[in-house]
Sequence to fold (142 residues):
Amino acid sequence: MFSKEEAHQLKKEFWTAFGKSFPRKWILYNTKVKDFSFKFYIDKKKAEVSLDIEMKDEGLRNAYYNKIWSLEDLLKEHIGNFTKVENYTLENGKVISKIWVEKENVSVFNKNTWQETFEFFVEKMEGFERFFYEYEDFIKDV
Fold:
């Protein structure tokens, strides 16, 4: 396997290569809704593009989740099939609502899968962004 330092370096190379291959500004945390963000993720087995709804107030978090859920078919038109969990528990124990698309059999440690991962990231994040911008007013009206 890789040492901790080698793994860190490969992860850094991955994100640098992604930024150079697709140099654009993503919406990510800039949704103008606190604790409502889009994220890229990759590990040694899979890649994900997600919408994480992380409000501490469970009622507010559920209200945003239900807004997105009410637009399920429209979201599916933008990103394809997705997974959703209203009460998703992170490794640190924090409960969030999460909607994501996943690509298996790619790895941050396998440079042969990087281009495939980059293309997946771009396609799915662009779909999430188009969806958000199209329904932004409705989503934010909580």
Remarks:
- The mean pLDDT is 96.
- The chain has one domain: 4-140.
- The helical segments are 4-21, 58-70, 72-79, 114-140.
